[in-house]
Design brief:
Strand order of the largest sheet of chain A: 1-2
Strand order of the largest sheet of chain B: 1-2
Order of helices and strands of chain A: HEEHH
Largest interface: A-B, 55 and 67 residues
Oligomer: heterodimer
Mean pLDDT of chain A: 82
Strand content of chain B: under 5%
Number of helices of chain B: 21
Number of helices of chain A: 3
Order of helices and strands of chain B: HHHHHHHHHHHHHHHHHHHEEHH
Mean pLDDT of chain B: 88
Helix content of chain B: over 70%
Largest sheet of chain A: 2 strands, antiparallel
Low-confidence stretches of chain B: none
Distance between the termini of chain B: 70 Å
Chain lengths: ~90, ~525
Amino acid sequence: MPRVAWLLVVLLLVLHQDWWLWENDELLWGFLPVGLAWHVGISLAAAAFWALACFVWWPDDLDAIAGKGPGPLKAGADPVGEPEARS
Amino acid sequence: MNESDEAQMRMLVIGIYLVALVLVGGAASLFSRGTRKDFLLASHTVGPVLLLLCLFGTTMTAFAMVGSSGEAYKKGIGIYGLMASSSGIVHSLCVFLIGTRLWAFGQRYGYTTQIQFFRDRLESPLIGWVLFPVLVGLLVPLMLAGVIGGGALILSMTAGAFPDWPLFDHVNPALDGGVPAWLGTLVVCLVVLAYVLLGGMRGTTWANAGQTLLFVVLGIVAFVFLAEKIGRQDNPLANLQWATGDVDPELFSRERMSRYSFLAYLLIPLSMGMFPHLFQHWLSARSAKTFRLSIILHPVLILLVWLPCVFIGILASAVDLPAAIQSDPNKVLPFLVKSQLSPLVSGLVTAGILAAIMSSLDSQVLCVGTMFASEVVSGRGERRRFSDGTEIWIARVFVVLVMAVTWWLSWWLAGNRSVFALGVWCFAGFAGLFPLVFTALYWRGLTAAGAFSSVLAMAGSWGYLFWKSDWGANQEFTVPVRIGPQLVGLEPVVLILAASTLALFVTSLVTQRPGAATIARFFPAR
């Protein structure tokens, strides 16, 4: 993953530690605790971040390593050795 | 309907669910190709939706439903942040960084177990002999907790069904007429065995997918019905507003929770990177891109399961619960379901909780059986001694043996609550092995000696801290450490992870790396 993706992961983890809401017992719409609503937001933000990661920062060498298709590996290097022939 | 009829109705619903699972296994067997790769890895044909449901169902144990509501009842909404939203970030990180890469190497070199990967990566056949007992030792308590929990759930939900049957008499008269724990656990084990043996990985995957859908939907159903029952208003929003009006406001905050524990618990979901049963599911994926849906939607599925159950736990504090339920929060959800919902709905929700238990148990037993078969009997590659057909039967025999031992232990340890405490410790142990798998994939400098030290440091620190916690009996156990003027209680997972990481790096830096050919195999030039 590129550095910006790691920064976003760290940001999510920092936001997850919402110490500023620790003692807040207010309810949104008369039933939803603010702290719980924040963490529901964290879950949705995590899903959005991973969607971004999967489509923008997807590792493009996996199929080549798996021997299933071309990838960014150096031509002729055969860096991953013989394909499996065991089963 | 009298009490006996209601309990019989719940038993009927549970029975139909269990029969359906066996039929799924039978249907999966019709698609078998008769090869070892098909039985153990479904011939790498699992697509995105099945993989998502299967990985999620395997990762979520009964704690996602029963434990979450119980802990919310005891400590408030903080349990969601402590275990659910953190897992939404870290689990997907593990699949993105580790699952996809292990899948690629597994495809290339034909692995079926984690140990085979580590043997090749570290050029050390001996690593298997160290890792094998550690992995099995950490996995078996999780299986035991599932089996014992399943038996206890069936007993409590069927109590009163057949009060005149002497076989169904119990020490606690309130449970008379219910299916005894030894029989309930036996049925759970036999049903899991049936679909695992018939369908192998394909049967397990199909059953897992169905079970996941079931417990996601039924968790929401239980919440909606319970809110209506407790609120007694004319619309869902009014039900929630009325019901939360009677709840202790402290449960809406995190005043009953330690800030340091909240931070330390971010490390627990790292355990996902080293679960051997997930490794086997990862290998069943059709392609690398198959993982995308699992990575993206895993946090959303966690939300759908945990949010209703946490809410149920909070709403439970607005209900007058018997003292026996108040003192054991794990009984809060089953009690509410049984006492507040109709027999049909409570039977369905019980099936949902059993689904959460069994969707982890099946993968665990298949994985342990596979490890025994691969490591103890079959050998690998050029060293393989048997035909595919024979290897499938060897795996089946080991699956049966592992399940038989688990059932026997569950019967022997029934009523021993420390099994559940041990389950929590097992997650910390797997998290302590995370540095090993991460560096094996991303650091050329990892050596076999570094791996040995890391595993031994994890096992040593884990064993020492487990002993200090009275073998898990002290569930609030932390290690007091002075940071500046403050005395802070460090969670065991922090120390276990620190010990295994330190041992790994220090030893690897002073010992010889694997050869250039091995490094080239696992670190492709770009």
